[in-house]
Amino acid sequence: MSKDSLPKAFLLEDDQTTREALTTWMETEGFVVQAAKNLAEARKAFEGEPVSVAVLDREVPDGDGLDLLREGRTGDADVVLVTGHSETEVIVEAMQIGALDYLEKPVDLERLGKLLGRSKSRWKRNREVQSALDQADASGGFGYLVGKSASMMKVYGQVARVAPTDATVFVVGETGTGKDVLARTIGHFSRRAKEPFVAINCGAIPSNLVESELFGHVKGAFTGAVRDRAGVFERADGGTLFLDELTEMSNDLQTRLLRVLENRKVTRVGDSEPRSVNVRVIAATNRDPRRAVADGELREDLLYRLLVFPIELPPLRSRKEDIDLLVDHFLARASEEYDFQHTLDESVRNDLRRHHWPGNVRELRNAIDRLVILRADTFDPNDLLPAIPKDGPPADGTLGIKPGMSIADAERRLIEATLDFTDNDKNEAAQMLGISLKTLYNRLNKYEEDDGASEDA
User: Residue 31's closest CA among 22, 40, 44?
Assistant: First the structure.
């Protein structure tokens, strides 16, 4: 096996016998090892090719091995600090500035071997991610994502950076842009790839069941709780949890979510015993998160807890050069699902390229499914059910809005007219009105309360 196909390690150790023995042993663990006996040699070595792991002795003739980490010379390497004796303050500092772990002398080779194994696994993942990224332009995709436009290549680069880490990711994008697909791609390229990937749409669950779905419940916690049930955090333990449409959660639940993210413990509904969970969280919203904070629909402290690594997915209308790739992808998938091969001529593809796609990639996928099922050879946008209808609700004059009417009354008439227009489709109505589904439900609940109060009077 060539040295180029092996991860690289660095060893700082002043004792020659120990240095040579550790170098040989690390090479048998599958690393190309560069060793140094002092800080001067080490600093020069770190000017060269990056390493995957650095094992640093604290006590060397010209200083402290930890200085290499303090100075930022170790780059992205996993750093293992070797100390002559336990020094709590130094160890705490080392962990705070990025050390992977520490070992006391004499070095426990079994423990060091496990740390090197973790580093090797991370190196392999990084190589796989980089290889997929290098091939994205030729393959027309990255992970589960499809496209090679400049805006998508930027997204791929962001995913490649964050996926191998455990950092929380916050995805922003319009409805239908593929936030769930992006989340699955991050999970695919992460160290948790073989562990559970659990997704939940916070806006699609009845409000009285969201807490139970998130955190679980114990038998008898509420009517219908006939047995203990784990929530999504427990079901995703060890893996990745995707929380879609986060702003649809109530403020109280957002507070509990923040506590779970900080403590890594969940308490089931009806229980008092917290349970530890190890979950990588990816959250998403189709709203401007700062606007959601201003509107009181997203806690600011939760936003900043989630906003470790933000990624914005572009709408399909801004990357129309990807439409042909997406069409081919969905055609192949639909043909396999419906067991019927279907092709589209250039005139149909031209029509698909010209369409505005307000429902983004999801709308395109549905359109292709329809074309395949119908074995159609033409595409008419009027046959679709767009995410945003071309015609809006009735004009102001038909709503009975008059000068001097209160804003609250005018708003109610507009909301009710929009619901009539959408046949009471609350998701579509909320999108047309430019408000969240939670805000729409809050308004409707208030109208019911006001009507009830009027009847009682």
Answer: 22
